[in-house]
Design a protein that fits this description.
Elements (H helix, E strand, L loop, with lengths): L2 E5 L5 H16 L2 E8 L16 H19 L10 E6 L3 H11 L4 E5 L5 H7 L1 H9 L3 E5 L10 E5 L4 H13 L6 E8 L6 H15 L5 E7 L3 H11 L4 E6 L5 H17 L4 E5 L5
Parallel strand pairs: 1-2, 1-4, 2-3, 4-5, 6-7, 6-9, 7-8, 9-10
Antiparallel strand pairs: 5-10
Helix pairs in contact: 3-5
Length: 281
């Protein structure tokens, strides 16, 4: 992992995600870019901003606000650690984040999770959802009150696809300094194909292509994938859950990938790392 982009809107929930990004970049020795995207034509981009500012004045105001955000929430233990800050003007928050991420060749984009109920999740959580679908790299959504004290166990939820193998390889590279246990997990529905046979096939292919000593494989049967996965994450004391965001091809893939990723992003208390299938074609 060489470069991390953290995008903030200065909200309270973004503070914990910033601290997570800061700790992660420090441990893996990655460059950290802290960015804020704003739309000069929209007053809703910052309701606290002074009115009637010119474009240059607005840029300076946003830049000062971003620098203050970082200085206010950076722990003294990081000393003189350099954090790159930049404000990006764009009429689309998503396009602004993606543009900067491509420019610095980011390995991962970090955002804070939002939404405590269905309405709030739909309105306020849309930025992370769109990033998951369109980002050129992995997206790590960090829930409130989550800190990076350890990263010992990562759960990767698989649906036995070729792109899963590429994503798992990326996952190992991203968090290699932590040497985590990675638990490859699949939940088969009752009407699905032979899950055990598929797991053995996937395991064989994966171990042929990936050299990593700390891999484990688990298989469960249930029609409620979300519920079982949440129980499993608690049982293994997972520090992070990762999965692939893919286009829907059939009912199972729609259920297991797109809908599951969105439900995990809005409701889990564990950081969620999402890989976009489109980046591995």
């Amino acid at each position: 992992m060489k470069t991390i982009v953290y995008a903030t809107d200065f909200s309270s929930n973004s503070i914990d995600a910033f601290k997570y990004a800061l700790e992660l970049s420090s441990r893996v020795k990655a460059n950290l870019w802290v960015i804020h995207v704003f739309d000069i034509s929209s007053l809703s981009s910052d309701l606290n901003a002074p009115y009637l500012l010119s474009r240059d004045e607005t840029y300076k105001y946003k830049k000062a606000t971003l620098q203050k955000f970082c200085s206010d929430h950076m722990d003294k233990k990081y000393g003189l650690k350099k954090v790159n800050t930049e404000v990006v003007e764009n009429d689309s928050i998503i396009k602004g984040i993606i543009s900067k991420s491509k420019e610095v060749n980011a390995s991962v984009i970090i955002t804070g999770m939002k939404g405590k109920n269905i309405f709030e999740e739909f309105i306020m959580g849309s930025t992370t959802k769109q990033l998951i679908e369109k980002a050129p790299c992995a997206v790590l959504a960090v829930p409130e009150k989550n800190t990076l004290n350890k990263l010992e166990t990562i759960v990767y939820a698989t649906d036995f696809e070729q792109e899963d193998i590429i994503a798992i390889s990326k996952l190992i590279k991203l968090f290699k300094p932590f040497k985590p246990k990675i638990k490859i997990t699949h939940i088969s529905t009752k009407n699905e194909y032979d899950g055990q046979l598929q797991m053995e096939w996937f395991k064989e292919i994966l171990l042929q292509k990936i050299l990593y000593d700390n891999l484990e494989f688990d298989l469960f049967y249930s029609d409620d994938i979300f519920e079982i996965l949440n129980i499993y994450l608690k049982e293994v004391n997972a520090d992070l859950v990762a999965m692939l965001e893919r286009e829907q091809i059939g009912f199972l893939k729609k259920l297991f990938h797109k809908d599951l990723v969105k439900r995990m992003e809005s409701q889990t208390k564990i950081p969620l790392l999402s890989f976009n299938e489109a980046n591995y074609k």
